[in-house]
Amino acid sequence: MTSLTIARPDDWHLHLRDGAMMRAVLPHTAQHFARAIIMPNLVPPVVTGDQARAYRDRVLAALPDGLAFEPLMTLYLTEDTDPDDVAAAHASGLIKAVKLYPAGATTNSASGVANFDIVRATLERMAEIGLPLCVHGEVTDADIDIFDREAVFIDRVLDPIRRATPGLRVVMEHITTSNAVDYARAQDDSLGATITTHHLVINRNHILAGGIKPHYYCLPVAKREEHRLALRAAATSGEARFFLGTDSAPHTDANKLLPCGCAGCFTAPNTMAILAQVFEQDAALDRLEAFTSRNGPAFYGLPVNSDTITLTKSAPDYPAHIDTEDGPVTVFDPGFDLEWSVR
Ligand code: DOR
Ligand code: ZN
């Protein structure tokens, strides 16, 4: 096969940031993707409906002429979140999800949730109105090994929340383990799971063997090879519960290459090229569209995009770094030559 036309993809987990960084990264997503779930972990976070409306307006103002893109906004769940504000933002069509960061789990998560009992009323209201909860699924306990934090979160936090809140729609975000794949497969269709591009490509050796590679450091951190293979099998399966959320997370090189560097892989420019190659390697090109363009809208109750993109077998043209007013941002290097480009 040398050409593949699919419904235009969406990104169900994206970091756009704000200001100069947003202006630099947004065109790379809008070039290929019609819509994206926009993460609210700005400084300060996007907590209220008013803040989400203002952020959406800034995203749309930063969009270059001629590119169509719909930001799907989220609210950052805190222990002070007002369930009525959440419900109003959902009723007006402004927000498509609420994001749960366990306090301290990742970049700008200090305002996240430490005591899950305090957010119970908000979760119950979300179940009533059908508003999904997007979950960063890692415990933060110092005594839990970082490679075990996702599996422990499923047992100690996620499953109890879901049992206590029947009907709550949940997205397990950026899953990184076979434990998460198995858990997702055992649930009904109120549960979805996103998988990033980079977790289909790298395992923990890519980060740590032969020298430390800060550009491969993200959260949840990449795990053993057996887990990467489980994610590959899930993503390429075509199963409705699995869909693309790139977690494309730009940080300047200055902030990545530090003694304590930031977590995040910037994959927006080459995600579709990498995914085409991954699905081709796994003899699953016919299921790429399900993963990038169909399963996500079905979970969120949105229409599949009516326009299409065409992937052709030719080396893609994208920069190794993009320039921003804050400094260069390195584009994720899959470590192999890419052979598909979006026409
Ligand atoms: O690698 C990551 N980067 N994981 C996250 O959960 C947050 C993100 C970011 O905002 O940089
Ligand atoms: Zn993220």
Q: Strand tally, please?
A: 13
CATH topology: TIM Barrel
Which sequence of SSEs, written as H and E, runs from N to C? Answer: EEHEHEHEHEHEHEHHEHHHEEEE
Helicity range of the residues? 25-40%
N-C termini distance: 15 Å
Radius of gyration, in angstroms, nearest whole number? 19 Å
CATH superfamily: Metal-dependent hydrolases
User: On the 0-100 scale, what is the average pLDDT?
Assistant: 97
Enumerate the distinct ligands. Answer: (4S)-2,6-dioxohexahydropyrimidine-4-carboxylic acid, zinc ion
Kindly give the count of domains.
1
What's a concise summary of this model?
This protein is an alpha/beta fold and 343 residues long. The chain is built from 11 helices and 13 strands. The protein is 34% helix and 15% strand.
Q: Can you describe this structure?
A:
There is one protein chain. With 343 residues, the chain is α/β, with parallel strands linked by helices. Helix content is 34%, strand content 15%. It is built from 11 helices and 13 strands. It has an 8-stranded parallel sheet. Helix 6 links the parallel strand 7 and strand 8. Helix 3 runs parallel beside helix 4. Bound molecules: (4S)-2,6-dioxohexahydropyrimidine-4-carboxylic acid (DOR) and zinc ion. Zinc ion binds next to loops.
